[in-house]
Design goal:
Layout lengths: L24 H10 L9 E5 L5 H8 L3 E6 L2 H13 L5 E4 L11 E6 L30 H11 E12 L4 H10 L2 E12 L2 H5 L1 H6 L11 E11 L1
Parallel strand pairs: 1-2, 1-4, 2-3, 4-5
Antiparallel strand pairs: 5-7, 6-7
Helix pairs in contact: 1-2
Length: about 230
Amino acid sequence: MTVDSLTSAPRFRCWAPPGVYRPQTDTGLLGRALRREHITSRTEVLDLGTGSGALAVQAARLGARVTAVDISWRALATTWCNALLNGQTVRVRHGDLASAVPGRRFDLVVTNPPYVPAPPGDGPPRGPARAWDAGTDGRLLIDRICAAAPTVLRPTGRLLMVHSHLSGVEESLDRLRAAGLRAEIVDRTRLPFGRVLHSRLAWLHERGLVADSTGGPTEELVVIRAEHT
């Protein structure tokens, strides 16, 4: 699979087997923000919830020393393979978010966490759905990332996180600021609902998260950038 939106030349190659989140619009949006961060060979990057490793590999191609974390062994194997496909080195660590790198701090943390609100009653996300389902408010992991960010960032470190307007962008900004970080939106895009959101349209409408629209429901994705004040 080729992801032209992530890089230009040389061509980026990305393989994503069943059960691993494939690079999509949110990946490309976060990749664009990543490229603005002036990464050098001394930059240490942490990719939380790496999935296919697309962002980890891109950071490595920019010269960074990259550590990629995921709770899925399949995702980590995919990341390792994609690094190899692109001639890069990425350290992979298995674990639950920052607990996989205890005591370490980084210059840049990138994360594309699950952010899709899910109806109650189905229990914790399982299988491929772990890559997008994030509880009834879409914040199952986002709140934990906001709380952990100051502990994994170096004094001059930055966080880049992408998520949907459906999962409370202002709340994320407030939580990061309350944790002592300066936080702002640096990128945004709007796109039509995909398959998963369309399947939950009635429930999302009941919760007031979707307004009536003649053009069909749309989702706004944003990238939040945060750093120490």
